[in-house]
Amino acid sequence: xxxxxxxxxxxxxxxxxxxxxxxxxxxxxxxxxxxxxxxxxxxxxxxxxxxxxxxxxxxxxxxxxxxxxxxxxxxxxxxxxxxxxxxxxxxxxxxxxxxxxxxxxxxxxxxxxxxxxxxx
Amino acid sequence: xxxxxxxxxxxxxxxxxxxxxxxxxxxxxxxxxxxxxxxxxxxxxxxxxxxxxxxxxxxxxxxxxxxxxxxxxxxxxxxxxxxxxxxxxxxxxxxxxxxxxxxxxxxx
Lengths: 120, 108
Known about the structure:
The structure holds two protein chains of two kinds.
Chain A: E1 3-7, E2 10-12, E3 18-25, E4 36-41, E5 47-53, E6 60-62, E7 70-75, E8 80-85, E9 94-101, E10 107-110, E11 114-118
Parallel strand pairs in A: 2-11
Antiparallel strand pairs in A: 1-3, 3-8, 4-5, 4-9, 5-6, 7-8, 9-10, 9-11
Chain B: E1 9-12, E2 18-23, E3 35-39, E4 46-49, E5 63-68, E6 71-76, E7 85-93, E8 96-99, E9 103-107
Parallel strand pairs in B: 1-9
Antiparallel strand pairs in B: 2-6, 3-4, 3-7, 5-6, 7-8, 7-9
């Protein structure tokens, strides 16, 4: 059974930074073999893809709304996925989910999310 | 404005069948597999369908998926009140993942 637990959310002011973490656990889950996504959901809105980091740790892609401001990284030894968010705006207010990249071109397993609120 | 277009809402009575459409383009649905996600109120999304029409372990066969050209469809038969949720389609568009805007299913 794979478990993904996000943390690091909170209330921050516009223009500031925040780093989210996603810890993976599960006896048979080999984190290093998985690409990992970040997906967010603004209050009352739909899903918005944020970023992916592949298992080589160097191939990364970002959605247009966060490109140049957010950076995804991973620590395979600790099974942790990170999202460094800089220059936050009120439009970044959302629940942020981490999820695994499946082997069939899908987003597979999802965490429960962490809420980021950007407000003055 | 989402890259993939879904109807905002659909509704049907318990026991009935409903379909949810997802329309895209040659650069996304036309080029790659489509997956579907169910989001029950207050919970994280869950994978429902992958590779256009395959169900992960534990997903009942009341849920089905299909794809034709640049459109995909999710079908749900034998509707139950527990199926009330938001449903999202998704796929790759080049190196970016894209979602539909979501469809709220109401079981009357």
